[in-house]
């Protein structure tokens, strides 16, 4: 049974391995460029903000930047490809062709058949995605250290261990949808739609609550003022303070001394179309406004990674258990 399963996964495994090797060679070639550009940052011992800005500017115009973008896309793309092309056809192909009646009436039980398929497919999915995630995380660590933005949702999902959990979830999701729909093409479409919905829902509604966020209240000054939006018709004003470097800001409110959100009314004589920015800043400074921040600092990266990976691995385990129950009691 194990040899038969290997023969079924052999082509996909060879293609995945060859792609990973080719991508790894590309990362190795461009890593030297990043190392050379980063030399001045590594040697800096004082105020390094200007040096870091120069490094990031040179990096964005270098030949390594397209590889950076490609690595980001590959980390997100590989799990879903494993789900739709490995997971979805696993049972759906057998049911669609009717070969499950022959496969499950031999000496191998349907439970053992499924167990070997899931273990083999899951192991290959986790290994290939883990190697890619490790390569991308190590390759981009100097850029992440300089930009301090690995906590931002777009980059966060391509670093650390969560891509492995995404791959396991996508694979088991594909297996489950294929088993329920019994057709390969509809299973692929359903897997893609559900997986994308889950990946979008995580940063929007779930991720911020996996680890308790930090709360900080700062005095709103001209130095940390990011923007002002005024509506002369309604007399309201929207004041936004700057976010924090190296963290993911979940909530950023401008509040008054009593803790309520500030929205005006605006004094158009000092903060209007005919007033200067200096006058507007002085008026805002006289109000005693504060910036109320709810954020996840960079130190939350690994706790959140483990928590989010646990969520998706747990979902994958539930899907696997459901597959065993369904294949034993509902498929004939």
Outline the structure in words:
- This protein has 332 residues and is mainly alpha-helical.
- It has two domains: 2-211 and 302-329, no CATH class; 214-299, no CATH class.
- 65% of the residues lie in helices and 11% in strands.
- It contains eleven helices and five strands; from the N terminus they run αααααααααββββαβα.
- It has helices spanning 2-43, 49-60, 64-97, 100-103, 110-139, 141-147, 153-156, 162-181, 184-206, 277-286, 301-329, and strands at 214-219, 225-231, 236-241, 247-255, 290-297.
- The strands form two sheets. It has a three-stranded antiparallel sheet, with no helix packed on it.
- The longest helix is centred in the N-terminal third of the chain and has 42 residues, at 2-43.
- The protein is elongated, with a radius of gyration of 26 Å.
- The mean pLDDT is 88.
- This is Transporter.
- The chain crosses the membrane at residues 12-31, 68-92, 113-140, 160-181, 188-206, 306-327.
List the defining traits of the structure above.
mainly alpha, 65% helix, two-stranded antiparallel sheet, single chain, 11% strand, 332 residues, 3-stranded antiparallel beta sheet, elongated
Overall body shape = elongated
| Number of structural domains | 2
Which structural class should the secondary elements be placed in? mainly alpha
**Rg to the nearest angstrom?**
26 Å
Unreliable stretches:
none
Q: Please write the string of helix (H) and strand (E) elements.
A: HHHHHHHHHEEEEHEH
The strand count comes to 5
What is the strand content? 5-15%
End-to-end span in angstroms?
21 Å
The tally of helices reads 11
The averaged pLDDT comes out at 88
Please bin the fraction of helical residues: 55-70%
Main sheet overview: 3 strands, antiparallel
């Amino acid at each position: 049974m194990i040899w038969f399963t290997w023969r079924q996964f052999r082509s996909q495994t060879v293609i995945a391995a060859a792609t990973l090797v080719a991508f790894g060679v590309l990362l190795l070639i461009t890593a030297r460029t990043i190392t050379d550009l980063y030399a001045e940052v590594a040697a800096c011992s004082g105020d390094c903000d200007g040096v870091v800005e120069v490094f990031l500017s040179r990096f964005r115009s270098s030949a390594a930047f397209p590889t950076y973008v490609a690595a980001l896309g590959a980390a997100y793309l590989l799990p879903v490809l494993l789900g739709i092309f490995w997971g979805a056809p696993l049972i759906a192909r057998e049911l669609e062709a009717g070969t499950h009646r022959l496969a499950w009436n031999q000496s191998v039980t349907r439970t053992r058949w499924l167990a070997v398929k899931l273990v083999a497919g899951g192991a290959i999915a986790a290994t290939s995605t883990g190697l890619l995630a490790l390569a991308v995380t190590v390759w981009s660590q100097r850029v992440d250290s300089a930009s301090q933005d690995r906590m931002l949702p777009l980059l966060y999902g391509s670093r650390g261990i969560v891509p492995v959990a995404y791959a396991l979830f996508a694979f088991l999701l594909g297996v489950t949808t294929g088993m329920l729909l019994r057709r390969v093409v509809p299973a692929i479409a359903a897997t893609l739609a559900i997986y994308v919905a889950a990946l979008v829902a995580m940063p929007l509604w779930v991720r911020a609550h996996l680890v308790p966020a930090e709360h900080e209240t700062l005095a709103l000054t001209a130095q940390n003022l990011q923007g002002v939006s005024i509506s002369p018709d309604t007399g309201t004003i929207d004041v936004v303070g700057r976010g924090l470097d190296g963290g993911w800001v979940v909530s950023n409110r401008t509040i008054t001394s009593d803790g309520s959100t500030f929205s005006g009314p605006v004094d158009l004589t000092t903060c209007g179309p005919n007033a200067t920015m200096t006058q507007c800043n002085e008026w805002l400074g006289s109000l005693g406004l504060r910036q109320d921040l709810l954020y996840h600092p960079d130190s939350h990266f690994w706790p959140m990674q483990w928590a989010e990976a646990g969520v998706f691995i747990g979902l994958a385990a539930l899907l696997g258990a459901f597959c065993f129950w369904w294949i034993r009691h509902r498929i004939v």
